[in-house]
Specification:
Helices cover 82% and strands 0% of the residues. It is mainly alpha-helical.
Length: 185
């Protein structure tokens, strides 16, 4: 699709990229994915604070995700460039689901009765470290898919929509996570 000729008058259309069905699906998926991750992040931060009562250990959660994401950046970019992006992205989403499942299991009464808070927090840190590795692949996958879906003339428009979806999902996800904590706690 990226080799098709787009008339000049369409390039000034603010919704031009959103008129491409594959792109709309990708943006819906990205929005849902990022919103879910941000909700989970808010819940995990709150949960860690409830277990430890330590703001320092909560801050270290961010570092435990940031460090592997940065250390893996060059390697993951290389892998993304050489792979089928859609298949790799689906594997990454599956890995995120597996990580969320581990966190769910760690929060069940069965687990909390058999493990100490320290052991549960250790599990949380290990999972967050894994999400940092996964994150180093998902960002480049989403970005590289844009160029394969939209024509070159619409790439700027598509990038704007993509960043808007990411930012909106981030804010809404953290907000919904906070509301869920307030509602259920």
């Amino acid at each position: 699709m990226s080799d098709q000729h787009i008339p000049a008058q369409q390039t000034h259309d603010r919704l031009a990229a959103m008129r491409i069905p594959e792109y709309r699906y990708l943006m819906f998926g990205r929005f849902t994915f990022i919103m879910s991750l941000r909700m989970m992040s808010t819940l995990v931060i709150w949960w860690t604070y409830q277990l430890t009562k330590s703001p320092f250990l909560v801050g270290m959660l961010g570092l435990s995700e940031f460090v592997p994401a940065i250390l893996m950046a060059l390697y993951s970019g290389y892998i993304v460039d050489r792979s089928r992006k859609k298949a790799l992205l689906l594997r990454c989403v599956f890995c995120y689901v597996a990580c969320a499942s581990v966190l769910l299991l760690a929060s069940l009464p069965f687990t909390t009765e058999r493990f100490t808070n320290f052991q549960i927090v250790t599990i949380i840190y290990a999972v967050i470290f894994c999400t940092g590795v996964i994150r180093s692949f998902t960002g480049p996958c989403f970005s590289s898919l844009l160029a394969t879906i939209v024509p070159r003339q619409l790439l700027q428009n598509a990038t704007t929509w993509s960043q808007s979806a990411w930012l909106s999902a981030s804010v809404i996800g953290h907000g919904l996570g906070g509301f869920l904590i307030a509602w259920f706690w």
